[in-house]
Specification:
The complex is a heterodimer. Chain A is α+β, with helices and mostly antiparallel strands. Chain A has helices at residues 2-20, 25-34, 49-57, 73-88, 106-126, 151-157; strands spanning 61-63, 94-99, 134-140, 159-164. Chain A is built from six helices and four strands, in the order H-H-H-E-H-E-H-E-H-E. Chain A has a four-stranded mixed sheet with strand order 1-4-2-3. The radius of gyration of chain A is 17 Å and the shape is globular. Chain B is mostly beta strands. Chain B folds into two domains: 2-160, Rossmann fold; 169-431, 6 Propeller (Neuraminidase), CATH 2.120.10.30. Chain B has helices at residues 2-6, 50-69, 94-97, 144-160, and strands at 9-10, 36-40, 73-75, 104-113, 116-125, 130-140, 169-178, 181-190, 197-198, 206-211, 217-222, 229-234, 240-242, 249-255, 261-268, 271-278, 283-286, 294-299, 305-310, 317-322, 328-330, 337-343, 349-356, 359-366, 373-378, 381-386, 392-399, 404-411, 418-420, 425-431. Classes of the chains: A alpha+beta, B mainly beta. At the A-B interface, helix 5 and strand 3 of A face strand 14 and strand 22 of B.
Chain lengths: 165, 437
Amino acid sequence: MKVKSLFSLLLLSTILSGCFNNVDPLSEKQTRLQEPRTESGFYENIASEVGQKFIENVSDTIFFEYNSEGLTDEAKLIIDSQVKFIKENNIRKIIIEGHADERGTREYNLALGEKRANSVKKYLVAKGVNPIFIQVISYGKERPLVETHTESAWKKNRRGVTIVM
Amino acid sequence: MKKLYLLIITLCSFTFNISHSEPLEISITEGEVKKTNIAISEFYTPLNNEKTADIIQKINSVMNNDLMSSGLFQIYDKQSFMQKPNEMRFRPKFADWRPLNVEILVTGKVIPIDNKFKIEMYVWDIIRQKQIFSKRYMIGGNAWRRLSHLMSDDIYTRVTGETGYFDSRVLFVSEQKKENRKLKKIAIMDLDGENIKYITDGKYIALTPRFSPDKKHIAYMSYKKGIPAVYLHNIRNGKVKFLGEFKNMTYAPRFSPDGEKLIFSYAISGRSNIWSMDITNSKFKQITNNDHIDTSPAYSPDGENIVFTSNRDGSPQIYIMNLSSGKVKRLTTGDGSYTTPVVSPRGDLIAFTKQSNGKFYIGVMNIDGTGERLISNSFLDEGPSFAPNGRTLIFFRNDIELGKTKLMSIDITGYNLREIKTPHGASDPNWSGLNTR
């Protein structure tokens, strides 16, 4: 049932957007669906419909400064939009991943990742999300998004990822 | 395998001519070390037996490799040996060996008896023309590898005055690239990279394994439950126990020197503190209690203190806490971050990872925090672990050019840096205590 409605939605949007521009939106959506979520550890195979909708409509990732778990203003704006989605869609299960870059030792980075995930959680709770719905998990430096060894890679790896189900 | 190990019976030590003169002095506290020239002959066997001949060659190969890898011995090339094994079966011709600058000669005898082997080793001081010591062993056929390490240890101990460390095992995380992922499995191996056994199957990430002092258990952290949790694994029967009923992240486990406690970190709501658990009665105790990151705890060998990393003063530094009084003292004061502290089995030194100016270093310092010395550095060197004799360290290095993480060993003086080869990438090494002691 779900697959049918999803399919017809996609078909409809294809037809509609085909009328308006040359870029095939269906292929774009397909790319997003197939994007490997390398950081999602054991959640890899859970691609819920609302989870996909979340990724498409809102940014699921915020970034941190080196050795810090503080939320930048930009991060707060992103989380604000996450809160909006969560409330509008009545989300009751949220997982927040905390990650660190490789410029730290293994155990310390696990702790740092945990602090980062909790920073996001605390902000979500402060904005009215029920803490019972939120689980945090730290991946330390174990699941980098970008595996090269440059400053720009490290920036992208110091992140908090929000996953909704 | 365990049964075969038990077949090693070291009989009483026969020393014919106890040398009264001063032992060869090898100083292993300075940067430059004069190596001892040693020649290890293949042991002699009176019987023309293929299996015996095979074992003799293998023993010779392992012993040569052990002593060479210590960095303290110059192994003399077998090709230019002056005498054959059978010519030396009673006593070497010292005069033949002197011109070659060989200082120590090792000879021996292997006699197969039923399914076992009787092995005698003789160690000679060529310069003083005397026997340093000899020893007799009895083993089952498959225990030759372990015996080789024991004999290397005996030579090392008698010649250097320091305890040998070749008869030991290394616990580590094997990192195998599979498609897009890195399979991280807990593994054990002999120090020379042989005899690898895998403890976990890589389905879930497993990290930071540690031996129990009796080597019967391993503690490690795994993502099996979804969030990081500490597990106790019985090596003998393969039973795995999840540590307590913690709903939040537990990690960084270590055993106490008496094997009765496990110390670890517990992180909840952004606070990471150190806890300990009594393994005998499963009772927990919170050791640190603050809002900062306290982790990587390690016991001193007398079990009285723990060293750990904390960022309570801003950046990660190393602290020491007396477990009875609860008093905490900061040990590191230099520029940079200090993490992963471990205390030498001798209780005299602390080894650690330091980050400064974009580089990673392995360092050592005295137990009171003075005398900091950085002994290695690279893009990423991390996680030192002491050898049982407290004089060598093992750590892991991310070689970004090769795209591989590998295990390295180094003397605490900074001397003799070498790679310990593993079939795949490797990290998080932990050195066991000696097998027999």
